[in-house]
Amino acid sequence: xxxxxxxxxxxxxxxxxxxxxxxxxxxxxxxxxxxxxxxxxxxxxxxxxxxxxxxxxxxxxxxxxxxxxxxxxxxxxxxxxxxxxxxxxxxxxxxxxxxxxxxxxxxxxxxxxxxxxxxxxxxxxxxxxxxxxxxxxxxxxxxxxxxxxxxxxxxxxxxxxxxxxxxxxxxxxxxxxxxxxxxxxxxxxxxxxxxxxxxxxxxxxxxxxxxxxxxxxxxxxxxxxxxxxxxxxxxxxxxxxxxxxxxxxxxxxxxxxxxxxxxxxxxxxxxxxxxxxxxxxxxxxxxxxxxxxxxxxxxxxxxxxxxxxxxxxxxxxxxxxxxxxxxxxxxxxxxxxxxxxxxxxxxxxxxxxxxxxxxxxxxxxxxxxxxxxxxxxxxxxxxxxxxxxxxxxxxxxxxxxxxxxxxxxxxxxxxxxxxxxxxxxxxxxxxxxxxxxxxxxxxxxxxxxxxxxxxxxxxxxxxxxxxxxxx
Length: 471
Description:
Elements: E1 27-36, E2 43-50, E3 53-61, E4 68-76, E5 78-84, E6 87-94, E7 99-104, E8 110-113, H1 116-144, H2 150-174, H3 179-186, E9 197-198, E10 201-202, H4 207-216, H5 233-245, H6 251-267, H7 271-285, H8 291-303, H9 315-328, E11 341-343, E12 349-351, E13 359-365, H10 370-373, H11 376-390, E14 392-398, H12 403-412, E15 418-421, H13 424-431, E16 440-444, E17 450-454, H14 457-470
Helix pairs in contact: 1-2, 6-7, 6-8, 7-8, 8-9, 11-14
């Protein structure tokens, strides 16, 4: 049974979860002893950040003297997390000094032995925690006590804030290479040139120029040569802002942003960051049956991956990526879908390109596929209600290998749209189409050019509605 004294004094330092390592550069061996008061468990877990997740470094058993000892090789420098159960108790630093001791007493007062980096880190976190506590206390007193002297409370708070800011300034000046200084510096926005300002505001006539400037200079304060930052929660938070808020979500814009990031990181000795980001976005979009993922994957392979820009990728790996991209390329939006010609169970032949409607949904499914049946009623309802309104037809191919199951399903559940019979092997042989999972749907225009690709029925409906609303 676990007993932990958790109150306002707990050290859970304003950090978020993040990271699974794919490339480990800044590694070191560590021998760390933890002596923590008010924790009555026999096992704790030490984790660390890397990119967008947290990783488990080791599970520690309580020693006879009540302490916990981490002795392990190949740990990435950065921020570590001391965890009990599902609760992160405090964070600390993996840095140059590799053998040290961290003590926290029953009141969560700290004492670090043998590691200046952690001593300074805890000092900074303690000061930060105190000012946040005072801020919360001041707001609560003003809210709960109408008769409270607001001016007096705010003055006290302002005085303490000024002290904390002076402390911060002196800390950054005295310890420019400390991980805390580097993390804070990394989060700073680029300085805005005067030509983009109209007084204190952004000049509305130069807004687009300013946005471009801000995005291209967003990483100016980030030290790519310091690999510790990838093992903190701040790197990926900044990366998300760069990709999701400062970059348009088209395949072209996303690839330009990735390319710019990699070139900047490479120029500033930050190859680990380049490797991580490229791998992250390749894996995010690779082998996902959605048009927008496929477009991004192909664009990344075509415009980012190269022997010069990404030298860590071997020629054979580059060739594999290019083969995958070439396989997807004919099935991207605006490409004409191949003219499939197959038969119904009764032997009648239908040709895809003979379907003369504004939209055609090519629907690969399987009679024995349970996921195909989920929300299928949504597609059927949409078809019956809007087939004539939106002028569309569904051209479906049952790929089940079990003919008896296909016959039984169609007898029990006859569709109103075109239903043909084949299997994935024949579709591959005849049309060079790899249908690896079902359901799989392509939405085509009147010329049989691809509009969207998705395994989700509702996205077909949403895409058609969206196009119709714009017309």
